[in-house]
Design goal:
The protein contains 1 helix and 15 strands. The protein has one helix at 3-24, and strands spanning 35-46, 54-55, 61-64, 67-79, 82-88, 91-100, 103-113, 116-121, 129-146, 154-159, 162-176, 179-189, 193-198, 203-207, 213-224.
Length: 225
């Protein structure tokens, strides 16, 4: 083959390779460095309530109820494959002690604000269906405890704020233009300590094993910065 023929063949091959992604994902913009994405949706927070939790004085295990709420999340793409994601939401959970010397004891409820920041990897940033995995940190803030429905002997409930590790997986679906849908799952490793004041003058301390699964779905809008 002549040098001219070889050059022509190489040029044609390069053109075909350059066109392949566009043919495979016709009409899909994909992810670009500098993209800023805002999502609005709903999440379910499902505590694991592991049996390694413990309660002094009366024994038993701490339990927190499942909860659902609205969520806002923000994602910034450092490059097409790497992004930072922050979720903001607050849920209310009923608390109880199961299997104690006093039986099952209702403790009322408490709110938690668990902002979670994860670093995400997107292996297929130019696909309409774009999965990702990630890991990061959570900081859970417990507030607004209520004794509604609590055992009459319970005077107060407090749960310590704290950091936890987070694992993350999900998938983005590009609808059209800047609009998309996101499905996301996070596993938070969270084991805060709690203290329950009683009307008997005794304070009961507990260690928890909440480790909640956070499952969410949101509609997202992309801005290009």
């Amino acid at each position: 083959m002549s040098k001219i023929g070889m050059a022509s063949a190489a040029a044609a091959l390069a053109a075909m390779m350059g066109a392949a992604p566009a043919l495979a994902e016709d009409g899909v913009r994909g992810k670009l460095a500098g993209d800023f994405v805002v999502g609005l949706g709903a999440i379910g927070v499902l505590p694991e309530n592991g049996n390694h939790s413990s309660v002094d004085t009366i024994n038993g295990h701490v339990r927190a109820s499942n909860s659902a709420t609205a969520q806002v999340d923000f994602t910034y793409f450092i490059n097409p494959n790497i992004s930072l994601n922050l979720i903001v939401a607050s849920t209310q959970h009923d608390l109880s002690v199961k299997g104690s010397a006093l039986g099952n004891v209702q403790l009322g409820s408490i709110w938690v604000l668990p902002p979670t920041l994860t670093l995400q990897y997107h292996p297929l940033p130019q696909s309409r269906f774009s999965p990702y995995v990630g890991a990061g940190l959570n900081y859970s803030i417990f507030y607004g405890s209520s004794l509604s429905g609590a055992n009459p002997a319970v005077r107060s409930v407090a749960v310590n704020n704290g950091f936890g590790f987070a694992l993350n997986a999900g998938i983005d679906y590009e609808i059209s233009g800047p609009w998309g849908i996101n499905l996301d799952v996070k596993k938070l490793f969270l084991s805060p300590n709690a203290a329950v004041g009683t009307n008997l003058g005794v304070k009961v301390h507990a260690s928890t094993e909440l480790n909640p699964l956070v499952v969410g779905m949101s509609v997202r809008y992309r801005f290009s910065l």
